[in-house]
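Q: Could you fold this chain for me?
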Amino acid sequence: MYYWGHTYLTILYSLLLIAVLQSPGARFTGALRSKPLRQLGSISYTTYLFHPLFIGLAFTTVGKREELGSLLDAVLLATAMLATLLFSAASYRCVESKLLAFGRQLRYSAEPQQSGDPRASDGLASRSTTECQQLNMEEHHPTRSRH
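A: Sure. Below is the predicted structure, expressed as structure tokens.
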């Protein structure tokens, strides 16, 4: 395994991805869209970030090295996995979902606002590029009416 590492996982996931892309309506692809897997997907990044912390805490608590060599090590890893998933779910529910909802309410302009932006004094900095172009057209062509 030293020379090949986790190449088998790369091959396995590549074949799975190819199978999903080749037959999106197949029965097993429906399982990939199940509610538990979608929920796991929503907490996956937090799980990825925090799993080393929880594994380290589990093994440090009992004074062991992080290796899978006994039944106790397997129990520690399972405990760390459960703690990580619970933490990630709580983080998503209490923090991330609220930040995502807040972010969806924000309106972004297509152009970055700079300190010397003349639109800022007119209240135009928050308008979309299309709105600004329409206003610009009206300034240069006053005979055209607004739609």
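A (continued): Residues 34-105 form one domain.
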